[in-house]
Specification:
α4 packs antiparallel against α5. By secondary structure, the chain is an alpha+beta fold. It folds into 2 domains: about 130 residues, 2-Layer Sandwich (Beta Polymerase, domain 2); about 120 residues, Four Helix Bundle (Hemerythrin (Met), subunit A). Strands 3-4-5-2-1-6 form a 6-stranded mixed β-sheet, with helices on both faces.
């Protein structure tokens, strides 16, 4: 193997996974998910698969089989198995990541919109995957949005107050911590609205340019009091606008009065 995987290495590993799963009778279907299902983002995209088994009773056996075969085939830098969530993650010595999800074919469902059924001995998996996409965004983002709005309404005003006090006291790193907390909540709210994954800003680069510019307006690049106040005020306006129509214990107007007493 090369030190860092190439496109050819990734394709060879893809073919190996396909061959390994085909050889085991308890594996009914292999589905590629993630960026590879529609064409990889770039040369560094990883491999993501869902393995559909004959039944959930075979879960541990199939997971052990995959670990054994991949370990025999490749030198591993990292491996973790999460039995409760039915996931395995491998990082090969060339830094190629392979993520495997496991489930019974009878309960096949898409985790994300992009998927490609590579083979299916049951003839049912693709239709089940398609059906599971109906209303998927509402199921995934709807509940998360409610939770994120509730969290933001309960905490952003207090964090903004703490940031203002920290500016007044000259506690630069405290200011940064409070602003980062609020910015993360704001980005989560944007992700919910645009149906984008916001964990570690995973899909936030896909936001419209005006929304990305708004986020940039809250980034701190210096330590002067004037800049810190500017970023705090920008973030306050943005997050309160995003929460319009929701009940927040402290209004933006009252918060601005609080700020004035510290400027």
């Amino acid at each position: 193997m090369d030190a860092i995987f190439s496109v050819q290495d990734r394709q060879k590993t893809f073919e190996d996974i396909l061959s390994i799963t085909r050889q085991y009778s308890k594996i009914v279907s292999l589905v590629q998910v993630g960026s590879g299902a529609n064409g990889y983002h770039d040369d560094r995209s990883d491999l993501d698969f869902v393995i559909a088994m004959d039944s959930n009773d075979s879960m541990l056996e199939v997971m052990e089989y995959m670990h054994k075969k991949i370990s025999e085939k490749y030198e591993l830098l990292f491996f973790i198995q999460q039995e409760t969530s039915h996931l395995q993650c491998y990082v090969l010595s060339n830094l190629l990541e392979i993520d495997l999800g496991f489930g019974a074919y009878e309960h096949a469902a898409a985790w994300k919109p992009a998927f490609k059924v590579l083979y299916d001995n049951s003839g049912t998996v693709e239709e089940k995957m398609k059906q599971s996409l109906v209303g998927m965004d509402d199921r995934i983002f709807g509940n998360k949005q409610k939770k994120d709005i509730d969290t933001a309404c309960q905490s952003v005003w207090l964090r903004l107050m703490h940031a203002a006090v920290a500016i007044h006291r000259g506690e630069y790193f405290r200011v940064i911590g409070e602003l980062e907390y609020v910015r993360k909540l704001y980005i989560d709210l944007l992700g919910d609205r645009y149906r984008l994954e916001s964990d570690r800003n995973r899909e936030i680069d896909r936001l419209p340019e005006n929304e990305k510019a708004a986020i940039r307006s809250t980034f701190v690049t210096g330590e002067s009091s004037s800049e810190l106040w500017e970023k705090l005020l920008n973030l306050t306006d943005l997050v309160y606008k995003e929460l319009e129509g929701h009940s927040i214990p402290v209004t933006k107007e009252l918060l601005h009065e609080y700020f004035k007493g510290l400027m």
